[in-house]
Specification:
By secondary structure, the protein is mainly beta. Helix content is 7%, strand content 40%. It has two domains: 2-16 and 22-70, no CATH class; 73-250, no CATH class. It has helices at residues 47-60, 95-98; strands at 2-11, 32-33, 38-39, 41-43, 63-76, 81-84, 107-112, 115-120, 141-144, 151-158, 162-168, 171-175, 183-184, 198-202, 206-211, 218-219, 224-225, 231-235, 239-245.
């Protein structure tokens, strides 16, 4: 679930135990609906204003930027684990800053150097025992809902745009799309697949997908990754996951 707001900004010229191995804003003039993203964009500049803005930019030789902010949500069922991702950037992407209020005793695990490092939301202090874990766009971690009701996590921030790079090491690592977009892992999200690479998605257990060395395609099928979902990446060789992303505006 994803909600997007679009706001314009202006700058005065460019200056310097575990085992390793998913609302919308109001539409001002239009709705954006791609195959794998459903976004409703609330534009604060209409088309005529945008045209005027372009003219102003050309005349004043200033640089304008368009920042896109919003939120996405992930729901974890009672007494279940979820492999989650934060796909919106903030000035502080630590666990404590992103999830400052969850049910007491909620558990979070981050995969670090081949092992799971835990943090718990303390029932007395009402904060994470280790809130310094990062959950940057492109990363991920396990969270366990220890409550008897579904747990909905809301992430708020800015959609990263432009050239994006997510480092994929050789071997196992928990990774996610750096932007809140649902789609086929390679076809839509641009994940670089090589022979014998494997990814594991999680939903009450791991599901493996391997990139066949002969057919050079995902087997048994290409995985679909949801908004707010992380997965295990197992690369034969280290590689960067790069893409150039821009939020569609019409």
């Amino acid at each position: 679930m994803l909600c997007i707001d679009e706001v314009s900004g202006r700058s005065k010229k460019f200056k310097k135990g575990l085992t390793p191995l998913r609302h919308s804003g109001i539409v001002a003039t239009h709705t954006v609906n791609t195959n794998y993203i459903h976004m409703r964009i609330k534009a604060l500049c209409l088309a005529a204003a945008a045209a005027s803005l372009v003219t102003t930019v050309a005349q004043a030789q200033n640089v304008y930027s368009m920042n896109v902010v919003g939120y996405h949500q992930v729901t974890i069922q009672p007494n279940k684990f979820g492999l989650i991702a934060n796909q919106l950037n903030t000035t502080n992407n630590t666990l404590q800053a992103l999830l400052p209020s969850v049910p007491p005793n909620t558990l979070f695990y981050k995969y670090v150097n081949g092992s799971w490092q835990p943090s718990q939301f303390d029932e007395f202090d009402l904060k994470w025992t280790d809130g310094t874990f990062t959950l940057n766009p492109g990363e991920g971690g396990f969270i366990k809902n220890v409550d008897t009701a579904p747990l909905t996590l809301t992430f708020v921030g800015e959609v990263l745009q432009g050239g994006l790079t997510n480092a994929l090491p050789a071997g196992l690592a928990v990774r996610s799309s750096m932007v809140p977009q649902q789609g086929l892992l390679t076809t839509d999200l641009g994940y670089p697949a090589a022979a014998n690479d494997t990814v594991y998605t999680y939903a009450d257990g791991y599901t493996p997908f391997q990139f066949d060395e002969f057919d050079l395609k995902w087997t048994p099928s290409e995985p679909t990754i949801k908004i707010g979902e992380a997965f295990f990446s197992k690369k034969v060789a280290a590689e960067n996951w790069t893409r150039n992303f821009t939020v569609p505006t019409q």
